[in-house]
C-alpha cells in the first residue's frame, strides 16, 4: 500500500514541481529587460529573417505561456506578454519557438517523426486508459495488452518530444547570441528560462513512462496467476 501511495505522489509531485520551476523562472525574468530592447515579436522576426524564413508569420495569441509554432500554417504564435514585452524571458521563448520553425525548414528528423506520431499518440492518450480499465475489470490480459500498445505510442511521442525541444532551445541560444539580441552576460538568465521550460517536457515523459511500466507490471502479474 505504501508503495502505491509513493507512486501516485510522484505522479502528482513531478509535474507540479516542473510547472513551479517554469512559473518561477518566467516570473523573475519577464521583469528583466533584454539589452537589445526588442519585443518578443521583433526577436522572432529578426531570427526568422536572418535564417531566410521570410514566409513564416509571427502572430499574437491569447493565453499565458501559450507560445507555440504551428507547422501547418508556418506561424510562430507568441502570448501577449511575450509578443509585446521586452524581457529576457520573452526573447528566450520567442527564439525557442523560432527554433521549431528552423527545424521544420530543415526537415529535422525527430520533428518529422513526432509529426507522424501525432494521430496514433492522440489515440493512445484518449483511449488507452479506458481499454486497460476494461481489461482489469474483465480480468482480460488481452485488453490490457491492447491498451498498453496504445499507451506505448503516446509514451513514444513524449520521448521523441525531448530531443525536439532540447534542440530548439540550443538553436534559440545560438540565434539570440549570434544576432545580438542578448549580450554574453545575459546568457545565464536566458538558459535558466529555457531549462525550466524543458523540465516540463522531461516531467511529462517521466510520468508517462511510469504509468506505462505500472500497467506492464499488471499485465505480467495477470499472466503469472
UniProtKB/TrEMBL annotation:
<feature type="transmembrane region" description="Helical">
    <location>
        <begin position="198"/>
        <end position="222"/>
    </location>
</feature>
<keyword id="KW-1133">Transmembrane helix</keyword>
<keyword id="KW-0472">Membrane</keyword>
<dbReference type="GO" id="GO:0006508">
    <property type="term" value="P:proteolysis"/>
</dbReference>
<feature type="transmembrane region" description="Helical">
    <location>
        <begin position="127"/>
        <end position="157"/>
    </location>
</feature>
<dbReference type="InterPro" id="IPR007395">
    <property type="entry name" value="Zn_peptidase_2"/>
</dbReference>
<keyword id="KW-0812">Transmembrane</keyword>
<keyword id="KW-0378">Hydrolase</keyword>
<protein>
    <submittedName>
        <fullName>Zn-dependent membrane protease YugP</fullName>
    </submittedName>
</protein>
<dbReference type="Pfam" id="PF04298">
    <property type="entry name" value="Zn_peptidase_2"/>
</dbReference>
<dbReference type="GO" id="GO:0008233">
    <property type="term" value="F:peptidase activity"/>
</dbReference>
<keyword id="KW-0645">Protease</keyword>
